[in-house]
Amino acid sequence: MECFSCEANSRRGKNKHRSLLTPHFSLLFLYFCILSLSTPAQTSWRDSLSILSRQIELRPQSVDLRLRKAAVNIELGQWDYAAEEYGRVLDMDSHCPAALFFRAYVNVHQRRYELAQADYEHLLRLVPRHFDARLGLAVTLQHLGKEAEALDQLNILVETAPDSASAFAARASMEQQRGLYVPALYDWEQALTLRPDELEYQLGQYATLCAMHRRRDAQRIEQQLKARGVPQATLKQLKKEAKRK
Prior knowledge:
Structural class: mainly alpha
Oligomer: single chain
Radius of gyration: 21 Å
Number of helices: 14
Largest sheet: none
Distance between the termini: 52 Å
């Protein structure tokens, strides 16, 4: 049975959304699954759930419908139902990228980190350059206290996506948390080179400079942040937290 990622791609080849099998697949696909179902008569997520449930009764082997229903379950906060639905999809197609990715996402939300790790690793064996799965695995490993392994995953992420500001920023954030300020500063600078207007990255750079006690450089960035409308209280809190480390 063909997974919905392939089925949707064949039906909507000209759609602006990327296929599940591309490295940069993101959670936007979750909403794409739902929105592609919507009609003007539908007024709520519960209406969508009701319609999907009836359709699944008629077509219980439809991977497409079950993925859509699981997406609506997530939107409604029905995490256990979503996990069950992704499990049913994987019973039909054990290599379905969408089900693996989103079941891992659900398990992280529910703090079932070992289960999430298994799904992310399975997906990465199928699609080694899957950006969000690699990032998700790194975050999951960090939750499990496996910080060295998490950083290894972020190193791979940067190597496979050297033009991604998000990859450098993710690694910078983890390095900063571990007190690795020199490489963190380098990664914040790389992220800002790729995406100069990203406020979050500049805040990370500022916090790192404060932690390194590089006052002159920190003051220069602070003035830029103030000019961008960042409240003084926010900057003061970042500086305070940096000094604790």
